[in-house]
Amino acid sequence: MKRTAIVTGGGKRVGRVLAERLLADGWTVVAHVHHETDEVPAGAIRAVADLASPDCAEPILAACPAPPQLLVNNGARFASDDLGGFNPQEFAAHMAVNVQAPTLLTRAFAAAGGTGDRLIVNILDAKLAAPNPDFLSYTLSKAALAALTDVSARALAGQGIRVNGIAPALMLLSAGQTKGNFDRAHGLNPLGRGVTPDHVWTALRFLLDSDVTTGEVLTIDGGQRFLGLSRDVQFLDLSPTGAP
């Protein structure tokens, strides 16, 4: 029988790439999307849910034809704020989507049963290894998700469920970022190599294959954290005469 995987935010960007790779690898994929009109990769099962809702896990798990063996908590909210512009409503929105939803899905995944090795992967952010003041609510929510990764790995190991994180650096053009800034920032790391969604897939493949790895976070940033950047890359002056 085919293994079943859930990928939240599976209709676009990194989530779509992961869903496509899993389909090609022989998995049955339940691709979560937010709206009824959102598309998913060909061959995937579409599950519509608002991750901000306390009931978000129910329609996603209900779409699974069998107990899932993989959950990728990829769907996320990403909006700009900082300490001076802190907004309690924006903070709450980030926490609902980026922390509450993965927690609810983790609980539902564990309760769904199933046999053999089962894996949860939380998509984090490399900026956790070298924080800066930008995107405050987003950063705090991803830090909380990293804590959930550790806590749930400890809680679920006795059920044969592994929980790990993947923390990539900038991979795709972000909202509000210019193409020129992205092109200059993408390879801004000691290795000089831009991170892509395929690198996230490679990390996921490792975690799928390494059945004794749990409670770990794989940071894939080309060493960007070593630079100690003072701002998010999209706010740096990366012109030929500027300096990060």
From TrEMBL:
It comes from the Bacteria. InterPro entries: NAD(P)-bd_dom_sf, SDR_fam. It holds the Pfam family adh_short_C2. The keyword Oxidoreductase applies. The keyword Zinc does not apply. Signal peptide: none annotated. Keywords: Oxidoreductase. PANTHER family: OXIDOREDUCTASE, SHORT-CHAIN DEHYDROGENASE/REDUCTASE FAMILY (AFU_ORTHOLOGUE AFUA_5G02870) (PTHR43639), SHORT-CHAIN DEHYDROGENASE_REDUCTASE FAMILY PROTEIN (PTHR43639:SF1). Belongs to the short-chain dehydrogenases/reductases (SDR) family. This is SDR family oxidoreductase.
